[in-house]
Amino acid sequence: MAQPNHDPITATADAGDVLGAYLRAQATAFLRGLRLHEESGADAAEGNDAARSLRGAARRISGSLATFRVVTESSWADGLRTELVWLSSTLADEHAYAARLTRLMDALHRLSGSPELPAPRGSAGSAGAAGALTVGSARAGALLERQLTLARTRAHSATLQALGSSRFHAVADAVAVLASEVPLDSVAARGRVTDVLVPLATVAETRLSAAVSALPPVDAAHPYNADHDGPWHEVRRLLRVHRYAREALGEDVSRPAAAGEALDRHRDAAEAATASAAAARTPRIAPATAYALGVLHADQRHEVEAARLDFHHIWLPEPAVTPR
Amino acid sequence: MAQPNHDPITATADAGDVLGAYLRAQATAFLRGLRLHEESGADAAEGNDAARSLRGAARRISGSLATFRVVTESSWADGLRTELVWLSSTLADEHAYAARLTRLMDALHRLSGSPELPAPRGSAGSAGAAGALTVGSARAGALLERQLTLARTRAHSATLQALGSSRFHAVADAVAVLASEVPLDSVAARGRVTDVLVPLATVAETRLSAAVSALPPVDAAHPYNADHDGPWHEVRRLLRVHRYAREALGEDVSRPAAAGEALDRHRDAAEAATASAAAARTPRIAPATAYALGVLHADQRHEVEAARLDFHHIWLPEPAVTPR
After folding, report:
1. How confident is residue B120, by pLDDT bands cut at 50, 70 and 90?
2. Potential cystine with B81: which of A298, B62, B115, B181 (Cβ 3.0-4.6 Å)?
3. What is the mean pLDDT of residues B304-309?
4. Least confident among A119-128, A129-138, B147-156
5. CB-based contact (8 Å) between A218 and chain B?
6. Can you give the residue ranges of the CHAD domain (chains A, B) (predicted)?
7. Chain A nearest C-alpha distance from B214 (Å)
């Protein structure tokens, strides 16, 4: 994981020095993650950790290049940023499918405590032992496992292909250069932190605030409606950009990090609900399987709603709605 | 609807006078409801109103006879109470099936705003017009309508049969006697309200408080588990007994009435969830139908959970859990 920089930064320091130090540190973290990933071989846990730190560093570099674009050589920054966004989204897929399967299986186990999930007809359906998967839940779990494992395997292949591509090697080379020398705009980089970086970070924050204000109201009456997910995903993206900008300035980012975790849960639950709905459209599944997938879908949409309330409680001075 | 008595009652009044006045008023309300029910004929709305006021009066009489048993001729009170409990539960069934169907159809319409409820394969399934029932929801609605209409028709027949029975006529005769003269215990009835009725009402309240304290914690992690519904239904029953006792004493009962409404919603949602789960066990239903019933089940279990939180907010000084 890339370490946030908590050292106090002097407001009168040169903007280029501060941004350069942050970008060099993240570039070093990127290269270390890459080396660990190559060395991890068959160790899945080590490989996951390495991929996570690689993604984190890539996001921090691309986020900082977006926020502080004018302090760098802009055309170089735009090119590298595009490539880093491609890389981190490619790397994210495999992890996302694995995490989605874990989330859905955990939810199914939790839900299967219910005596009302369908059991075989004629059996003591309303008295199943708590924790034992009912037939419908077990079949739904097997179906989701099959579908998401297939998707993860495909994503794994795509990751391997990406990491072997000349496109990736060009990104790695560019980051290796960045680790020793950051291409800066000679004029802007000589300005003071407080005159150059702080106003740019404020722009990122203003963009975030506007997106938060424009969020549709948290509507407990329509938890199953995924139409409103998009603006929330956009807030999640802008919150990350804001957080990395504050991190580059050496500020405490525990609040945006906590709010970001709520929005990560929001995204994960929304995609898990979609996966459950997609699985229910599989032809020729048993009604009990479809029923369990319906319960699972509704459960994950309620998790979406809970994550929205969590975000409001963390991020806004007043809760947006009074929970009933 | 039986009118609660809000006239101030003197603490030094005779217990028998106060209880007698309340019981006579409720007996009169019962007889009026019965007459309206007989006159309503084919007018369903009038018949429903009459049945509701009949049930309310029956519950108030049987509740008061339970709480203030020792102030009345106890063996008479026990007999009448048993018969009134039978009558009001018989009358309640038809209304309950109708209300359950309305609740489930409303929920299906609300849920069908979701673009992720299954639509016919190959159609623009993820872009259905909001409010239009998807195929699965429509089929689930038709199935529930068939099952609950059948149950309601059976309950209607049972009501007609009960109202024509000699058992019912005996109850009606007993209530007619009660409307003019309440059989009281000659000693207890001469005591003062504050010495006799108030302590008995306090016993009912203590019984309620104990049941509330013994409620399982509101566990947002297991909303689908109906194992804990029983103690909540018992609290609902005890809350009614408490409310009618306070009403007999001429006290303001708006808080127990509001808390009782939350527990009514709790009971209705729990039974609607059970009805949805039962419908999903119908043989040979389509997977899309089962899926919609699963979503509906989870939705109603979340309504159960929301009703529990509502009750806590109304009834307890501190919320039992912090909503997330």
Report:
1. very low
2. B62
3. 94
4. A119-128
5. no
6. 12-320
7. 21
Q: What are phi and psi of B187, to 5 degrees?
A: -80, -55
Tokens describing residue A240: 């990350």
Q: Do residues A311 and A266 touch, judged by C-beta distance below 8 A?
A: yes
E strand map for B118-249: none
Note whether A274 contacts B116, CB cutoff 8 Å.
Answer: yes
Report d(CA B134, CA B131) in Å as an integer: 9
d(CA A144, CA A140): 6
Whether the CB-CB separation of B319 and A157 falls below 8 Å is answered with no
Minimum Cα–Cα distance from B221: chain A residue:
A110
Amino acid at A253: V
Query: CB A287 to CB B280 under 8 A?
Result: yes
Residues shown for chain B: 324
**Which residue in this structure is represented by tokens 């519950």?**
B59
pLDDT range class, residue B112, cuts 50, 70, 90: confident
What are φ and ψ of residue B214, in 5° steps? -85, 0
For residues B36 and B157, give the distance between their C-alpha atoms in angstroms, rounded to a whole number: 19
Please give the average per-residue pLDDT across A123-144, as a whole number.
Answer: 64
- Name the token pair of A120: 């075989």
Residue A308 has a CB neighbour count (10 Å cut-off) of 27
Choice between A38 and A81, residue whose per-residue pLDDT is larger: A81
Binning pLDDT at 50, 70 and 90, where does residue A2 land?
Answer: very low
Which residues of chain A are within 8 Å of residue B288 when distances are taken between CB atoms?
280, 290
The CA–CA distances, whole Å, from B247 to A58, B130, B242, B244 equal 69, 46, 9, 5
Predicted-complex ipTM score:
0.77
CB atoms A323 and B302 under 8 Å: no
Number of H helices, E strands in chain B: 9, 0
In angstroms, rounded to a whole number, what is the distance separating the alpha carbons of residues A273 and A279? 10
**HSE-CB of B34 using CA atoms within 13 angstroms:** 20
Nearest to B148 by CA among B111, B106, B93, B91: B93
Nearest CA in chain A to B314: A324
Q: What is the DSSP letter of B4?
A: P
Separation between Cα atoms, residue B59 and residue B84, nearest integer Å: 7
The alpha-carbon radius of gyration of chain B (Å, integer) is 23
A275 Cα to chain B: minimum distance (Å)? 10
What count of CB pairs under 8 Å joins A to B? Answer: 137
A47 touches chain B (CB under 8 A): no
Check CB contact under 8 Å for A221 and B110: yes
Q: Summarize pLDDT for B177-204 with one digit per residue, the tens.
A: 999 999 999 999 999 999 999 999 999 9
Sorted by where each begins, the domain ranges of chain B are 15-315
- Residue A247 forms contact with B (CB below 8 Å): no
Calculate how close chain A gets to B113, using CA atoms only, in Å.
Answer: 6
Contact A290/B at CB under 8 A: yes
**Cα gap A262→A269, rounded to integer Å:** 11
Domain B15-315 fold: CHAD domain (1.40.20)
Cα–Cα distance measured from residue A218 to residue A304, given in angstroms and rounded to the nearest whole number: 10
